[in-house]
Every structure is written in C-alpha cells, then in structure tokens.
C-alpha cells in the first residue's frame, strides 16, 4: 500500500483481455488505499490515480452467437 501511495501513474497492458471484475476490484482497492492521501478518493475512478489502459484491440476475436462466418 505504501508503494501504491507513492505512485502517480499506473499502466495496465492488455486491459481489454481482463474481465470487468478486475477493473471493479482495482477501482475499489485504489479507492480504499488512497483515501488517506487523496480527498474524496472513494468517489473518484481508481481513487483519483491516473490509470492508462492499453493493448492491441485488433487481437480481440469477434463473438458471433450462433453465427457462421
């Protein structure tokens, strides 16, 4: 937690491959950790920390429900 408090930018590569629960967990965790250093951190996305989400969105396979190509 002390290291996260000192961090000003978080980079998340291949974010498009993560499930929404990963984002929700990071959001809640950063809000809890940064609540002592950042005002209203529990109301800000990711506790007010800058988070850069990256990855190659061309790698995502399209999903076709009962579809044929």
UniProtKB/TrEMBL annotation:
<dbReference type="GO" id="GO:0016887">
    <property type="term" value="F:ATP hydrolysis activity"/>
</dbReference>
<dbReference type="GO" id="GO:0006281">
    <property type="term" value="P:DNA repair"/>
</dbReference>
<dbReference type="InterPro" id="IPR010285">
    <property type="entry name" value="DNA_helicase_pif1-like_DEAD"/>
</dbReference>
<dbReference type="GO" id="GO:0000723">
    <property type="term" value="P:telomere maintenance"/>
</dbReference>
<feature type="domain" description="DNA helicase Pif1-like DEAD-box helicase">
    <location>
        <begin position="1"/>
        <end position="68"/>
    </location>
</feature>
<keyword id="KW-0378">Hydrolase</keyword>
<dbReference type="Pfam" id="PF05970">
    <property type="entry name" value="PIF1"/>
</dbReference>
<keyword id="KW-0067">ATP-binding</keyword>
<dbReference type="InterPro" id="IPR027417">
    <property type="entry name" value="P-loop_NTPase"/>
</dbReference>
<dbReference type="GO" id="GO:0043139">
    <property type="term" value="F:5'-3' DNA helicase activity"/>
</dbReference>
<protein>
    <recommendedName>
        <fullName>ATP-dependent DNA helicase</fullName>
        <ecNumber>5.6.2.3</ecNumber>
    </recommendedName>
</protein>
<keyword id="KW-0227">DNA damage</keyword>
<dbReference type="GO" id="GO:0006310">
    <property type="term" value="P:DNA recombination"/>
</dbReference>
<comment type="similarity">
    <text>Belongs to the helicase family.</text>
</comment>
<keyword id="KW-0233">DNA recombination</keyword>
<keyword id="KW-0234">DNA repair</keyword>
<keyword id="KW-0347">Helicase</keyword>
<keyword id="KW-0547">Nucleotide-binding</keyword>
<dbReference type="GO" id="GO:0005524">
    <property type="term" value="F:ATP binding"/>
</dbReference>
């Amino acid at each position: 937690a002390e290291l996260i408090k000192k961090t000003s930018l978080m980079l998340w590569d291949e974010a498009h491959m993560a499930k929404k629960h990963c984002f929700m967990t990071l959001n809640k965790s950063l809000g809890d950790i940064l609540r002592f250093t950042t005002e209203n951190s529990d109301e800000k996305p990711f506790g007010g920390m800058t988070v850069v989400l990256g990855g190659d969105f061309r790698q995502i396979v399209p999903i076709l429900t009962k579809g044929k190509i």
